[in-house]
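Saturday, quiet lab. Running sequence design on the structure tokens for the scaffold JK sent over.
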């Protein structure tokens, strides 16, 4: 299976915006949900946002609610994460995940790294004050 491929990371200042994209165009297995997670050095993988592939319903972590928005393209080949008003604590490696078992959106926060069946390599986001 082709891996999920993330893009769009970078180094920015507090208050800036970034848009991450996760391409799933190489995937042939069914995907029920896509999610974004982040991981800082020495810390556990943390849920950020997830989207239901069929109808676009979303679920966003409280820590980023109102600042981050997850969406998918109409062809359902990419999941995007629009990040506004970035803070230093948003820094980390951002990874996208595909759920091919229909675990649901809300379980992503509890399951963390156990939620996705497929993962990308990640894209680094660094926010400096």
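Result came back. Writing it out in full:
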């Amino acid at each position: 299976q082709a891996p999920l491929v993330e893009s769009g990371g970078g180094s920015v200042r507090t208050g800036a915006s970034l848009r991450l994209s996760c391409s799933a165009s190489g995937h042939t297995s069914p995907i029920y949900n896509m999610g974004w997670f982040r991981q800082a050095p020495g810390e556990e993988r943390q849920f950020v946002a997830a989207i239901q592939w069929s109808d676009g319903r979303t679920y966003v972590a409280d820590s980023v609610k109102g600042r981050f928005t997850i969406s998918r393209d109409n062809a359902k080949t990419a999941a995007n994460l629009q990040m506004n008003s970035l803070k230093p604590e948003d820094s980390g490696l951002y990874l996208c995940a595909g759920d091919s078992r229909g675990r649901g959106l809300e379980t992503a926060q509890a399951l963390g790294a156990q939620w996705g069946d497929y993962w990308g390599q990640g894209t680094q986001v660094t926010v400096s004050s």
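Notes for JK: DSSP finds one helix and eleven strands in the chain. The longest helix spans residues 107-111. Ask whether to fix the surface positions before the next round.
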